[in-house]
Amino acid sequence: MIEFRNPHHIEPPGVLRQILSHPANDSEVIELAVFQEHRYAFFYWNKWVQDNKPKNPTCLVSLDWHQDLCYPCETEREWLDKLDLTSDAEVSLFSWAKLAGNNDGHILCAAYLNLIGDIYVHCRQEMGRNTWQDEELTDTYGNKHTIKKFKTYEALQEALLKSSESSVFFDIDLDFFSVKNGLSDGSFEFTYLQEQEIRAMLDKDHPLISWIFERIKGFTIATEPEHCGGLLKSNKFLDLISDIYFNPELFAQKCNWKWKPKY
Description:
Layout: E1 16-21, E2 29-35, H1 41-52, E3 59-63, H2 74-82, H3 88-97, H4 106-112, E4 119-122, E5 135-138, E6 144-150, H5 153-162, E7 168-173, E8 178-181, H6 182-185, E9 190-192, H7 195-202, H8 207-215, E10 216-222, H9 225-228, H10 231-245, E11 246-247, E12 256-257
Parallel strand pairs: 2-10, 3-4, 3-7, 4-6, 7-10
Antiparallel strand pairs: 1-2, 5-6, 8-9, 11-12
């Protein structure tokens, strides 16, 4: 049993977290968390649920080269059923040491515990003939979670703007900005979206981003440098997101959204 200096304030290793004003209204604040290992998002989704106790589960909108949609196996379900979600120490250790180390199981583990509601993933990874078909997961409490996967940004936008979702966790894996992902196909060759295209996609006035920001309850960013083609490539995309949204840069003193007063 590990003894912590402060068991009530433990977070996964290497994470940076910032409190921001809400991007679309002045009555709320949200948190943004940045980490290398995508599975650490599980910790923050749970933290925000425990802090805010939403009446209905918050949907997840994720931009990722990979799907990251592996279902929890029987052993993982047993671990999840025993997990004390009120303990930062326990959830942090679980996120680090028990969630799949290849970072593909955190989403459906969170859904299994009803920490997130329905799931919307825009990805590039094809998993066979049925890649883009909806799936469904029944959580440990008997709730149904629809899993939707989108091949295009436009299809994701159409689905969300037609939906009745009222709250969102927004999740970006920076390898999403790669097109040919050489670590995933074994070629070790990478191509990328152009900066102008990324800026257009993430612009606060883009209909999809505007819809997300009106409903956002938390923002997670996974840097995953290996899957971006290297640390400098990953840092470049993080810097681009910071430049699009924040002034001064992320994690600087008084950082806030560019279109709002310094926080």
